[in-house]
């Protein structure tokens, strides 16, 4: 949370002590904001520098611009609705909501950066893929006219290149390498 204190307002929205963020909830056809952004002077200055500096990555600049437009601080922030921000910066409304939420829950640095992906690791590395392709290029086992995906997967495990692999993973690797099983 980065030292931010959150509380629930009377309308059910969550506000953070510093920059508050917005996620929308539909209630009887009315869209209520769950996270509300109020930037302090220092945060507004950091975001403005990021936008105007010219050396930041495009996505960081866009996220900073979104946060500046979403700011509802008195006499300073424009407080644009999510729909207007989404149209102005050519992003989805849900993207604006996620950036607001990240600002509240994880802080300014996390809101400006890209969100982390699922983090699923690949099962094979380049050396293992090379061994698989070498196996495909070799002779098919006795009693078989050509390699099948299941035969390749089983043989690849037997040779000790990997603990386990599905035939679908073998198919994807061969497709990625433009390798066919036909002779």
Whole-number total of structural domains:
2
Helix content: 40-55%
Low-confidence segments, ≥5 residues, pLDDT <50? 1-14, 17-25
Strand order of the largest sheet: 1-2-5
Distance between the termini: 58 Å
Largest sheet: 3 strands, mixed
Number of strands: 5
β-strand percent reads 5-15%
Order of helices and strands: EEEEEHHHHHHHH
Structural class: mainly alpha
Mean pLDDT: 80
For the CA atoms, what is the radius of gyration?
Answer: 26 Å
User: What's the shape?
Assistant: rod-shaped
**Number of helices, counting only DSSP H or I runs of 4 residues or more:** 8
What can you see in these coordinates?
The protein is mostly helical and 183 residues long. It has two domains: 6-112, no CATH class; 126-176. It has helices spanning 41-53, 58-70, 82-89, 93-106, 108-112, 126-137, 149-158, 167-176, and strands at residues 6-8, 14-16, 24-27, 30-33, 35-36. Strands 1-2-5 form a three-stranded mixed beta sheet, covered by helices on one side. The protein has a two-stranded antiparallel sheet with strand order 3-4. Helix 1 (41-53) packs antiparallel against helix 2, helix 2 (58-70) packs antiparallel against helix 3 and helix 7 packs across helix 8. It is rod-shaped. Residues 1-14 and 17-25 have low confidence and may be disordered.
